[in-house]
Write a structure and sequence with these properties.
The complex is a heterodimer of chains A (303) and B (602).
Chain A lengths: L2 E5 L3 E6 L2 H8 L4 E2 L8 H14 E2 L2 E2 L11 H18 L6 H10 L8 H10 L10 H12 L5 H9 L2 H12 L4 H25 L9 H8 L6 E5 L17 E4 L1 H8 L2 H4 L11 H25 L1
Parallel strand pairs in A: 2-7
Antiparallel strand pairs in A: 1-2, 3-6, 4-5, 6-7
Helix pairs in contact in A: 3-13, 4-5, 4-13, 5-9, 6-8, 6-9, 9-10, 9-13
Chain B lengths: L7 H10 L10 H18 L42 E2 L14 H4 L4 H9 L13 H13 L12 E3 L12 E3 L20 E2 L8 H4 L3 H7 L40 H24 L5 H28 L3 H12 L3 H8 L6 H4 L17 H6 L9 E5 L6 E6 L8 H4 L5 H9 L13 H4 L1 E2 L7 E2 L1 H11 L5 H7 L8 H4 L3 H11 L7 H7 L10 H16 L10 H4 L1 H9 L2 H8 L4 H4 L13
Antiparallel strand pairs in B: 1-4, 2-3, 5-6, 7-8
Classes of the chains: A alpha+beta (303), B mainly alpha (602).
Chain lengths: 303, 602
């Protein structure tokens, strides 16, 4: 269901949760990812926060690049190919963090271990020597939350230099590579969300008997929202009034996926901005779950 | 596309408050506000569609869909003509990801038959002393209007239910047919949980009387002797006032499965009511033909039934000041009946002037009856095992018999010993069972399905198994998904120490308790005949059946119903319907506040 918030000069926002409407608007070329200032004051403030958090070396992270951005498509295809290869070879099995993730999901290790382990595992898909620890994961969490925290807190993060230090730490560990930065600073939180849900599910009776599709459907964690900016005036059945350049469109992806159980929507599979890690994430989660179930069984057997 | 609002400030505030304190623990005005907030939250967070692609628009029947209900329920929503039609999918009240059916060992753990025997078997009949047996009769009458999963799959491999060594099941094995799978699934459904088709129209359109297909509708309107459609718009009743019989010797109706005397009486009563409405409309519209009179009478009859359910049946089971107000407000608004009848609607607000006549709204998902609704409507303990039929004239005993002797094709034989009035009087003065553990009718634990099926089943076992098979979450999970706190132990689930021990012995972990068992074990709010858990789904779906239906909202007008039809709905209720067709019963209802409370004996 769409919700329109419009106060002239202040805010102009359309929120969409219906999966069909999300797909419709995502496919409309008159909307794009853009961090350029525009619209009312709140629209501008919102975009400014995104720029402060996710623009490195004057370049937005890959998931914020516009559909026509130079080289976006080829880099996207290359990344997808690489991750698909990782999935095919289950390359994570050689990674030391994999065992930690399995143990944490099987409730044989602390939940706190999930974040750094997942961050390290993802980082090493891009940079062989990537090192993650509690500090890098905490930095990634603060960075990811920055666009959504309340204004005083955001200001405090800026004035205290916390935001700058977090960005620098993540940038250094990723050696400046935007894809590594995106994976270890932003995408990692969806992976950790899914693993936390799996850990919680593993603690319920009968969880091991659940079919794989049910586990993935219950545990998959997707970005709360996707942001689009109106580039060209447009009328759409999703909005009660005409949208004009600078208006923001918030695609409430998590709610849309929750209401429909649509896994393709979770990865925006048919979209120009589809997640290149769909196969990788699904294979990784499946592997971790299966190993965790096996570990739980052997743990029970040993008692 | 389906509304533009969320649960609002009130919904959010009470959501937080209810984590610590439930609605019925507040004083009256706050409790009422809390109920409004609960319904709002449920409307926006607990309605899910299972249709992945828009169903094809059905072919139009040869009637004016603006003016009349179609036989198969199509074209109620003119923008989505298949919505609510017969043979469309059940929806859900919990996110689709939570609805994968249980399989393998999990499906039979613990064994549904063990649960049936050890937790549900009726040792001594526990009566619900504030109610009469018309309550279960009405309930089943309504359920047959709203939904059916149709016949089960006889081709697929049957479930084999594990039996205890000391089980008295007369056969060596207990097998149960699988639910019939959805034949409309496509590649878009791959990877998604199983879906099931509702074989009845999903609307509150009295399809249990009129059928869910044009063929069935014509059958109930046809004189079996001549084979001709009745030209006057009436339903066929035999000269002695009884329904005609079908080829299996069971009374003919729009839906006549699981037939027993309670259903027989409800169907006969409202077939008579249909014919009375036709007579009334003909006075106002002498120039109209039988088809027009039939269709208008159907609209009026269906609305009257919905009204009785809303303002009489439900408050009888939920007999608290908040719910009496709440259910009346669903129909007339908080300004209530007298204001409505003198001034009409004051606004579009469903709060002030009722849902009926307010603008249609499907809220978060297209309209459909949900699997979870069908799960919480499993209320078989209401049915007694033993019946005592007495004469209306002097309360003398006519006959005592068991449930089997008043069910299926045997129902008809009852009427050779007594009149319809005697039978109604007998049910009106008897108590149904209470909705608690250890009160499942013994007859239904070894029940031979009526023709043409003739299989013997343990319905209690089947009730538990079906929820698991259809992916209805277990009790604790279900409560969390509808924003209710879940019990952390058996002691938190029920205050009956004996039940706590029995439940723990079978389930081991409170998280494992099945929804049905949890609902029967739970201590309900004061004045409630059923659990608060089931009530949450009721409060949502009872409103939705009205709010989504064009004929109860946008088109609830004199132009569609006729002036005389609207007056008929306004002026009638269960007592007047009974009094019209059985005037000799009127003294038995004198001074009885609600026709579903026990009637006067004597």
């Amino acid at each position: 269901m769409a919700r329109r918030v419009h106060i002239p000069g202040l805010i102009s926002l359309l929120e969409v949760t219906d999966p069909r409407e999300i797909r419709l608007l995502d496919g409309d070329s008159r909307l794009d990812r853009s961090l350029a200032p525009g619209g009312g004051v709140i629209n501008r403030l919102r975009l400014a926060r995104l720029r402060r958090a996710f623009v490195f070396d004057a370049e937005p992270l890959p998931a914020l690049l516009g559909r026509e951005a130079q080289g976006r498509e080829s880099r996207h295809a290359e990344l997808e190919r690489r991750l698909d290869e990782c999935a095919e070879a289950s390359s994570w099995r050689q990674d030391p963090a994999f065992k930690t993730l399995v143990e944490a999901v099987a409730r044989q290790a602390e939940a706190e271990a999930l974040g750094p382990a997942a961050q390290g595992l993802l980082g090493r898909r891009f940079r062989d020597g990537y090192h993650a620890d509690e500090a890098t994961f905490a930095a990634a969490r603060r960075l990811n939350d920055y666009p959504r925290v309340n204004a005083p807190r955001a200001l405090l993060q800026r004035l205290s230099g916390r935001l700058r230090r977090d960005r620098r730490l993540l940038h250094e560990r990723a050696q400046g590579d935007p894809m590594t930065l995106h994976a270890t600073g932003v995408a990692v939180h969806n992976l950790v969300g899914a693993l936390e849900a799996m850990r919680s599910l593993a603690g319920t009776p009968g969880a091991s008997a659940l079919p794989r599709a049910a586990v993935l459907a219950r545990c998959l964690s997707v970005p709360e929202t996707l942001l689009r900016q109106v580039q060209v005036p447009l009328s759409t059945p999703c909005s009660p009034r005409r949208l004009v350049p600078g208006d923001l469109v918030l695609l409430r992806l998590a709610e849309g996926v929750r209401s429909s159980g649509d896994r393709d929507l979770a990865f925006m599979a048919d979209s120009w901005g589809r997640c290149p890690a769909q196969r990788f994430i699904l294979a990784l989660l499946t592997d971790i779950w299966e190993q965790a179930v096996a570990a739980s069984r052997s743990g029970e057997g040993g008692r | 596309m389906f509304g533009q609002r969320g649960s609002g400030l009130l919904g959010r505030v009470f959501r937080r408050i209810n984590r610590r304190r439930q609605w019925y623990r507040f004083p009256f005005p706050i409790a009422v506000l809390n109920l409004v907030a609960l319904r709002r939250n449920l409307r926006w967070h607990n309605l899910y569609s299972t249709e992945r692609e828009r169903p094809q628009d059905p072919e139009r029947e040869e009637i004016d869909v603006r003016q009349f209900r179609t036989a198969d329920g199509s074209y109620n929503d003119l923008a989505a003509p298949a919505m609510g039609k017969a043979y469309t999918r059940f929806g859900r009240n919990v996110p689709p990801a939570e609805t994968f059916g249980e399989t393998g060992d999990r499906l039979m753990t613990p064994s549904p038959r063990v649960i049936s025997r050890r937790l549900m078997t009726r040792d001594t009949f526990v009566p619900a002393t504030t109610l009469n047996v018309l309550v279960p009769a009405w309930l089943q009458f309504m359920v047959h209007d709203w939904f059916s999963h149709g016949s089960n799959d006889t081709e697929a491999e049957r479930y084999e239910v594990p039996l205890d060594e000391d089980d008295d099941w007369p056969w060596e094995r207990m097998t149960v047919l699988r639910s019939r799978r959805d034949t409309t699934r496509s590649s878009a459904d791959e990877g998604h949980p199983a879906t099931f088709l509702n074989t009845e129209t999903q609307w509150w359109d009295a399809s249990q009387i009129y059928g869910s297909s044009l063929r069935r509708q014509r059958l109930v309107r046809t004189d079996p002797d001549s084979g001709e459609l009745l030209p006057d718009g009436k339903l066929y009743l035999r000269p002695d006032g009884h329904l005609p019989l079908d080829e299996h010797g069971i009374e003919l109706a729009g839906a006549n499965g699981n037939w027993w005397v309670g259903l027989s009486l409800m169907h006969t009563l409202f077939a008579m009511e249909h014919n009375a409405i036709v007579d009334r409309l003909r006075i106002e519209h002498p120039d109209r033909d039988g088809e027009w009179l039939f269709q208008k009478a159907r609209l009026v009859n269906a609305a009257l039934i919905a009204k009785i359910h809303t303002v009489e049946w439900t408050p009888a089971l939920l007999d608290t000041p908040e719910l009496r107000l709440g259910m009346r407000a669903n129909w007339w608004g908080v300004l209530d009946e007298h204001f409505y009848r003198s001034r009409g609607r004051v606004s579009d607000s469903e709060l002030f002037s009722g849902i009926v006549g307010s603008p249609v709204d499907h809220h978060a998902a297209p309209y459909a009856i949900t699997e979870e609704f069908s799960a919480v409507y499993r209320m078989h303990p209401l049915i007694p095992d033993d019946f005592s039929f007495r004469r209306l004239a002097d309360d003398s005993l006519i006959k005592e018999c068991g449930l089997t002797e008043v069910a299926g094709s045997l129902t008809q034989a009852l009427y050779s010993d007594m009149s319809l009035g005697d039978a109604l009087y007998s049910l009106g003065t008897s108590h149904p069972g209470a909705l608690v553990l250890h009160n499942f009718p013994r007859h239904l634990q070894q029940h031979e399905k009526q023709a043409p099926h003739h299989r013997v089943i343990d319905l209690a076992t089947v009730d538990v198994l079906r929820d698991r098979e259809r992916g209805v979450p277990r009790y604790c999970r279900f409560r969390r998904l509808i924003d209710m706190p879940a019990p952390g132990s058996f002691a938190e689930l029920t205050d009956n120490p004996e039940w706590q021990r029995q439940l723990e012995a079978i389930y081991g972990d409170v998280e494992e308790v099945d929804l049905l068992i949890g609902c029967l074990a739970e201590t309900p709010p004061p004045g409630f005949a059923f659990s608060d858990t089931a009530f949450r789904i009721f409060i949502l779906m009872a409103s939705r059946r009205l709010k989504s239906d064009r004929f109860f909202t946008d088109d609830y007008t004199p132009e569609v119903y006729t002036r005389a039809g609207m007056e008929w709905i306004d002026n009638n209720g269960m007592k007047s319907v009974i009094g019209r067709h059985f005037p000799e019963l009127a003294p038995r209802l004198e001074g009885v506040r609600n026709a579903f409370f026990p009637w006067n004996r004597g």
